[in-house]
Write a structure and sequence with these properties.
Layout (H helix, E strand, L loop, with lengths): L17 E2 L3 E5 L17 E2 L10 H12 L3 H9 L21 E6 L11 E5 L2 E6 L2 H4 L11 E4 L1 H9 L1
Antiparallel strand pairs: 1-3, 2-4, 4-7, 5-6
Length: 163
């Protein structure tokens, strides 16, 4: 189950006074709560660490994360409390691992990642993909391109080929 895949939705938590990251996992397709937005913010996340503005925000986040011994997931779960799965349902069967072993992310404007910042993908409690700057590491298309960001994972590929 890609229990943590929704964590990718919060990719800029350390880079702005207030993070407005939005979008969702396109594949594997999540099951959303009825009537809930699939691209709207679940919670507003204030700047978790004071990393300032401008300059090397990715480097600053990496340094702070290492100093504090925290992953992106740790930060997100600390900030969102009871909304850790966003608007996705947890009472449904887990989605199969995509046959190509890739997770696909789309912005709310039908492109790829649109913000500087880190992201992580988990299956249950196991991290299967990580990017320090997902907009750069996993480029997708621009707004309205219908080209999601592709997040490859050798762990996911191995699991997909085993089935």
């Amino acid at each position: 189950m890609l229990a943590g895949a929704a964590l990718a939705a919060i990719t800029v938590l350390g880079f702005a006074p207030h993070a407005d990251a939005h979008g969702n996992v396109k594949e594997p397709k999540p099951t959303f709560e009825s009537g809930k937005s699939t691209v709207e913010w679940v919670v507003n996340i204030d700047n978790f660490w004071d990393v300032g503005s401008g300059g090397d925000q990715v480097g600053k986040f990496k340094t702070m994360a290492k100093e504090k011994g925290m992953s992106v997931r740790d930060v997100v779960l600390e900030m969102v409390k009871d909304k850790k799965c966003g608007y996705t349902r947890t009472d449904v069967d887990p989605q199969p691992i995509p046959s190509d072993g890739n997770v696909k992310w789309r912005s709310n404007r039908d492109g790829g990642f649109g913000h500087t910042g880190p992201c992580e993908v988990y299956i249950d409690d196991k991290m299967v993909a990580h990017g320090d700057n997902c907009e750069e590491d996993f480029p997708g298309g621009g707004d309205e391109s219908n080209k999601p960001s592709i997040i490859p994972s050798t762990i996911l590929r191995a699991a997909a080929s085993a089935h």
